[in-house]
Amino acid sequence: MSEPTTPLTPLTSPAPVTLQRVPSATVRLQLHREFTFDHARALLDDFAALGISHLYTSPITTAQPGSTHGYDVVDPTRVNPELGGEPALERLVDALHARGMGLIVDIVPNHMGVGGAHNAWWLDVLESGPDSAYANFFDIEWQPSNPALRNKVLAPFLGESYADALAGGRLQLAYDDAAARLAIAYYDHRFPIALADYSALLRAGNNDTATHAVADRFAALGTIRSLRTRRERADEARNALRDLATTEAGAAHIAEAVRTLNAQPDQLDALMARQHWRLAHWCTANDEINWRRFFDIGSLAGLRMERAEVFEATHALLFRLYRLGWIDGVRIDHVDGLADPAAYCRQLRRRLQAEHAARPADRLTSHPWIVVEKILAHDEAMRSDWGVDGTSGYDFMNQVGALLHDAHGETALTQGWLEWIGAPAAEAPFSATAVAARRQILHAHFAAELDAAASALHAVAQQERSSHDVTWHAIRRALAEVIVHFPVYRTYASTQQRDAQDTAILQSAMSGAAACLRRIDQPVLGWLDTWLGGQPAGQDKLRQLALRRCQQLSSPVAAKAVEDTACYRYGRLLSRNEVGADPGEFSMSANAFHHAMQKRALTWPHAMLTTATHDHKRGEDVRARLAVLSERPAQWLAAAHQWRTEHAGWVRHLPTGPAPSPAAQWMLYQTLVGIWPAGLDWHDTDAVRELAERVAQWQEKAQREAKLRTDWFAPDAEYEAASRDFVLTLLTGEAAQTFLPSLSAFVQSVAPAAAINGLAQTLLRTTLPGVPDLYQGADFWDPSLVDPDNRRPVDYAARHRALRALQTHADNTLAPLLAHWTDGRIKQAVLARALALRAALPAVFESGDYQPLAVTGSGAQHVFAFARTHGADAIVVIVPLHASALLGHTATPAFATGVWRDTTVCLPSALSQIPLHSAFDGQALQSPRLALGQVLAHLPVALLHT
């Protein structure tokens, strides 16, 4: 990572030390051991100069060693030492405060990282089972229907069968001197042995008095009934073992006992059979897991955050840091995974508020800023009673993306996609792809969770005479179809009767399920309707458990099926296949977008606005470019068919079908159009080779996520190799000499319009109601793909130089940057000027109203404009829409003189008689109507202010 060396000053006057109520603008940083708190600190002058008020970081608590994202937390009570630990965090916070800035952190209440050897809570559970102090921290079913797992935890961490691992000597007993713990070792994994087995192990093969004395301590634990006393005595016994191991004779006895057992596979097997865990191949998890995972990831275990002791233990560090004034708010990861998201958010708000009065006087804000990662389905409203400031912005990313798409291209692109893959028109709706993916994911990846939910519901059925004959299998069949047809991620009924919004959701799911169930099973839907919140659960523990199991099942199924499967199968236009978006919703009209923003201004004025995230499948400017294809469907279809014909000879025909498949080939061409740098010379072999490797890695992930010809569980090596060869042939092999100039020419033809989309998206994000977020490095053009591509190192030195130059000419027009628009500086400049205006007019952006502006004239359909006012202060924002037709064949994202003709934006009366000043080119305008030819004469977007 390149770092700036010369500090920058803000583009506006320094912010006051006392923070505003909510952040003005955030920058998201992905922290890991190669990019630590100190690396972030070195960039603060640049972020301040850009207009950022708060850093917003990935999780800062201790994660699995080497974690590149921080969501696999193993110790929520400590700041991650790989990031520099608490001392480095304090240095960062001090530097932020010196610049009038603050810190927002991502928190992970839903799950923890397990496996490996670093989660002390999890290791204690493996060692002590249901008697562990942390047995109820994790969402474990200790009495599942499978008798082999009663009072045990399935440990699906083996990369091979249990028998092969044991026979191959890869399961070995080991003694850890530091922890004074005996555990089975499997590569980096550790599975602690129950303390009840220590006595026999220590006594085996020796008569040493000291060793036997320690063994007696462990043996005595079994006679103690009090859990608290037993834990105290266990600590004493462990300390005695630690002391024994420091002696030469004791260490030798322990080593000999371990060696002897490892030499006897049958005895080792017998020992493992007695433990509170059951080792298994990782692929068994989907069928037999008896604890809740994060999605279907076996290394992330769900937490019982609804339990008070779990909440307090996992948030103690957060509360302390908030009390110290080190952090000012949080982003809650995967809120839908929690048992009761609403109750959790309200509890978190109360606890942070309780710490508020103790904060330093110079860090007092009116309240902590809290946003949640929430995926909202089409027409799903965010709940307003959670006590949060809104979502983390995936809904906005969807809305602004849809605005950029031209509805006129939908029919042609839909037909072109279906003809390309040879599918009938009946398969056109994305919903059909999503339902098929939901069914596959539920039964193949969440079978164990479905079984557990069905069992919980069956227990409820057996409580009442009227439902006594409702069988487990019938419940499972009916529940499966309800989950498959869920229109949203989940419902939120608790012990009370569900609300009208949840009732409508359930009725939609029930209707879809009824159409797919046999008539004999349809009556079960009535019982499910009752049990899933139709009647209050009250104090009925079985009803509460059943409701929780079902609500915590529908959410991960939706996420894996829609985001991680269907979005990789449905390829009509990949710019609409994004986290939080519905690929079936092709576009959004200007009027609908205005309505959504008016509602946002009234309901969620402080929610986050983002267009790029650590989760995105394609960078914001990749999507902005692909959106241009909705304006030019004929051009895209012609090019794609030409390339398909030219490359037919390099498609391999395997017994399983062509490689790559037609759908994968279509998506590959779109991806190449989306990420090919506008300024890249196709003769630059090194740059093209690097891009080819990125695309090949993306393609492998995309095809595995699609789960059609290959997948993560059982990769088809032959298909994947053939698909990779196809990519390399196109970009660096035999086809390159004809394909690269053709691809480059196509990109050059759409890139100027794409750049206008990118600038419009940037300006809208920074001026609409909400808090704009900048994903790391996206102040320049963002050509990234899905992770890990979107987490590559950022060239901050280049961004630093651009900011320095912008400061030098702070009062000048940005128009000269258009001559070099491909380098990204124009995007950064638009962002910086917009954020500077936010700092100068905070009330307008924090609480100003939102007024759609009428547009008249021949180009009215290509303009989107609005005003925001607060008292005497106001801004006006004007951006082009679907401007490809207006650009002609220009190589620059600028409009020729006369292209807008009679198009004007009508100002409200309050603004029509006062001068408006351009933040981008210094123009002063005053008129009831703003002529687009004048407003957009120097730059393709406009930001005016009083």
Strand content: 5-15%
Gap between N and C termini: 40 Å
Mean pLDDT: 95
Main sheet strand line-up? 16-15-14-5-2-1-20-17
Secondary structure blueprint with pairings:
Blueprint: E1 26-29, H1 37-41, H2 44-50, E2 54-57, E3 61-63, E4 73-79, H3 85-98, E5 102-107, E6 111-113, H4 120-128, E7 153-158, H5 162-167, E8 172-176, E9 181-186, E10 189-192, H6 198-203, H7 209-220, H8 227-245, H9 248-262, H10 265-273, E11 277-281, H11 285-288, E12 293-294, E13 297-302, H12 308-324, E14 329-332, H13 341-356, E15 369-372, E16 390-391, H14 394-403, H15 410-421, H16 430-445, H17 447-461, H18 472-484, H19 500-514, H20 524-534, H21 541-563, H22 590-603, E17 608-609, H23 620-627, H24 633-646, E18 652-654, E19 657-659, H25 662-675, H26 685-706, H27 717-732, H28 736-767, E20 771-775, H29 796-808, H30 825-840, H31 842-847, E21 851-852, E22 855-856, E23 863-870, E24 873-880, H32 884-887, E25 904-906, H33 909-912, E26 916-918, E27 924-925, E28 929-931, H34 932-935, E29 942-945
Parallel strand pairs: 1-2, 1-20, 2-5, 5-14, 7-11, 14-15, 15-16, 17-20
Antiparallel strand pairs: 3-4, 6-13, 8-9, 9-10, 12-13, 18-19, 21-23, 22-25, 23-24, 24-29, 25-28, 26-27, 26-29
Helix pairs in contact: 7-8, 12-13, 16-18, 16-21, 17-18, 17-21, 18-19, 19-20, 23-25, 23-28, 26-27, 28-30
How would you describe this protein?
The protein is of the alpha/beta class and 946 residues long. Among the domains are: 26-110 and 305-392, Alpha-Beta Barrel (TIM Barrel); 120-299, 2-Layer Sandwich (Maltooligosyl trehalose synthase, domain 2), CATH 3.30.1590; 430-572, no CATH class. The protein is 45% helix and 13% strand. The chain has 34 helices and 29 strands. The protein has an eight-stranded parallel beta sheet. The chain has a six-stranded antiparallel beta sheet with strand order 21-23-24-29-26-27. Residues 36-502 form the Glycosyl hydrolase family 13 catalytic domain.
